[in-house]
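pinned: reference chain
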Amino acid sequence: MRKSISVTFFSMVATLLVLGTAVLGCSEWLLFSRYFAQERYDTLDSVADVTQRAADYIVQQAALPKGAELDALNTKLEIIGESAEAYLFFTDESGNILIASNPEMLDMDTVEQALIDKVSGDKPYHTLSTLDGVLTEKSYVSVRHMQDARGNNSGYLFLCSSGARLTDFKEEFWSNFFFSACVMLLCASVLTSFLMRKLTDPLQKITDAAQRFGGGDFSVRVEGVEGEGEVVDLAHTFNQMAENIQSNIRQLEGAVKKIKAMHELMGERITVSLAENAIDALRTENPGLNPTPERIMEAVANYFYIPVEQMISKDRSKDVAYPRQMAMYMIRQELEYSFPDIAKIFKRDHTTVMHACNKIEEERKKSRQTEDVIKKLHNNIRGD
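pinned: its structure tokens
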């Protein structure tokens, strides 16, 4: 039983935890990747503003500068790109690459017309790709359409940032995530084992007691189950049931012995009539076999040394109120009367009876002394 409950409970906890961490990890990764991409695009766009002067210079020239002027322009573009961990290049309107800050990052000298057609308007075009093989690696790309002084389209400015940083971040993120998930599962397994031990140990005690009781050991009781909750209530209920059954068995044994004595000493035949007479006599001698509210009230009154009449009265003093509450509780336990039925006996409202029963039940869970009082009253009521 313990293994079955523990495994089932842990499987449910582990499944929920794995699903929860997976959803959390995916959502966080999606959020981080979008933030990372947006941060890169914003950086590239800001670099594009700085590069605009160089772009205007190239656009206004009929041809690229040469010699020292070209070297100076290349140096300027490299410095601008390195400041933002990026590289850039310019193309004409047809997509032919005119100049690049890092030529080694390019595998082709022409951008496909299909990509050029996607770039239109004044807003930058963003993408994460190799530009259909133009770039040597997958990169964040921001593309701007350049215009000359008269507003005519004259070419394109490409600013690129390597996507390797995202790959590195992705590996580190998922590595940390899986490590954290393993730690969480380990902690969950330890916590589950601790909680299940607290739950299943009392259940195991109740199971063992029930098996021994079923095997004929009617003296067995559930011991060592203290506190609050349904399991504690179950243990108390089992013990009370065992008390009742053991008491009834002793009384039935007395009836059988009486029938046997009548047969052996008086020579009477054992018949149904003889058995009925013996049981009736037993009931008369032992009213605890069929206790009544009056008998229960009398037993409680005798235990607390007060008259039964005072217990039914309107006296609210502590010396009377507590025995009255105990009598209500014992009638509820022994006879399973409803709250309204008990209220009629004591001429009280049913909410008063409910409060009394709940109060005694709570005391029973917390106080060993109250539990002992209830056992003694039960034995007195049953005539043990």
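why pinned: The chain has three domains: 2-168, 221-290, 291-384. The longest helix spans residues 2-60.
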